[in-house]
Amino acid sequence: xxxxxLSVGLCISAGSVxxxxxxxxxxSTGAQKLHxxxxxxxxxxxxxxxxxxxxxxxxxxxSAGSIDIPRMREGGLGAxxxxxxxxxxxxxxxxxxxxxxxxxxxxxxxxxxxKDLALATTAAEVREAHxxxxxxxxxxVEGGHMINSDLEVLRRFASLGVRYMTLTHSGNDEWAxxxxxxxxxxxxTDFGKDVVxxxxxxxxxxxxxxxxxxxxxDALEISKAPMIxxxxxxxxxxxxxxxxxxxxxKDLAAKGGxxxxxxxxxxxxxxxxxxxKAHPEINKAIGxxxxxxxxxxxxxxxxxxxxxxxxxxxxxxxxxxxxxxxVEHINHAVQVAGVDHVGLGSDFDGANxxxxxxxxxxxPKITEALLKKGYSERDVRKILxxxxxxxxxxxxxxxxxxxxxxxx
Length: 408
Known about the structure:
This protein is of the alpha/beta class. It has one domain: TIM Barrel (Alpha-Beta Barrel), CATH 3.20.20.140. Strands 1, 2, 3, 4, 5 and 6 form a 6-stranded parallel beta sheet that branches. The two termini are 36 Å apart.
């Protein structure tokens, strides 16, 4: 999730008609069939923030934002990790309670839309939801500050269905350094290492998006299960600290992990990132306007921030970023880490989307582009979701093994 303002239940034939309508008929029959028969997994979406004000209906098409059930159906999105997020500056019991409220909000959406959504906590449950024609709803906690330095809170989150936790968000927490804060712990503290060990035991995936490079390597050394970068892109293409270096991607892959490419314009395009730095007054103006429009409503803030950023792009004050940059990052990550170690983590409803990938309905374009680049159908399925499901399965296996051994 970005926190600055710049920075299949349908049958294949029905899905194909919808996709053609959304994309001007530019998706081939082969891409349509492949996409809608695959399990497409998105490991990071911030739509949860919109659940909290009671006005957003996930079941109807919305004119704003990127995620709702109709557009997930149109885009063939089979599994979605809803992000549980609280700002890093909010800590202690308040952060815990607000996280619990968001977890309950996701669970309530599943109860409200039982024909369309199924709560999933395992790879097998994702596959079963797909067979039933329902979208698997999963949860990831975005920021270790929400456990309030208490492993019992982590266990409670896991018991409620959380299946990954990002070790930090934009600021350091009490036991781990963030990629966008001044180092305070030299990576993970001893307690932070205990957090990783307990996540392994619980079957909660260790997510290293947002963490400092040192925190990444500390976690990589400690974790017995493969890790993910739920929503990061390639630093070689766009030099953002939130992105991964080529060496980090290789090392993540060597232990079975997956980098899920983030769609945020400021992580895809160096030109966009440079423009952000060159014109801080734009960011300030957007922030002030968002505050006027939304107050403290975080779901509103995210949607309006994206809309206002697009206005600056259309005025020529910021560069336009095209959706094909997503494919460029996917291709680079595949070349560096291997096709078994790349997936999709959009950051929908939490960042500035590139042109042509405004919402989940556009996802088949990625399948079409990968096929045109010469990827095999098998490899496209891996990128769309099978790689992430493999990690989930392996994390579950490690958890079973750790729980079958006497605890020290």
